[in-house]
Design brief:
The chain is mainly alpha-helical.
Length: 138
């Protein structure tokens, strides 16, 4: 089921959101100081491209630099990307078929606003379900 949702997501909004994150990442990587922010944009962009079956968890080793970085991210790129998720989420929720995709878009807003100190993992890993090494899923 998650593969079907990911394909529909990709066609309706995932590709465009990915391009937004890609643009933000490239612009942020122009300066040396912006490289960590650009890498975060690329990481979230891949998540926005294919989100079903993955989730965001807090990193335990994140500290004060992540907090300061999140404030800078929010000002530089976060609110633009969150606005994109809000817009596409509302548009998707206008149809019954698009409601699950709109909800997924709304779930991406917190990580688009404050991405540093977060990690994107599979939902199986986040819930503690043991997945054998090399298992590809369905």
């Amino acid at each position: 089921m998650k593969t079907i949702l990911n394909v529909i997501w990709l066609v309706l909004c995932g590709f465009w959101m990915f391009l937004g994150y890609l643009l933000a990442g490239v612009l942020l990587c122009v300066t040396v100081i912006g490289i960590p922010f650009g890498l975060a944009a690329f990481r979230i962009g891949v998540y926005a491209l294919w989100p079903f079956g993955k989730t965001v968890v807090d990193r335990r080793d994140a500290g004060a630099p992540s907090c300061v970085g999140n404030v800078l991210w929010l000002v530089l790129a976060g609110w633009w990307l969150a606005l994109g998720h809000i817009t596409t989420g509302i548009a998707l929720c206008l149809t019954i078929i698009g409601i699950p995709l709109g909800i997924a878009n709304f779930k991406l807003i917190p990580v688009s606003l404050l991405p540093l100190g977060k990690e994107i993992v599979s939902t199986d890993r986040a819930t503690g379900v043991h997945v054998p090494q090399g298992y590809q899923g369905q």
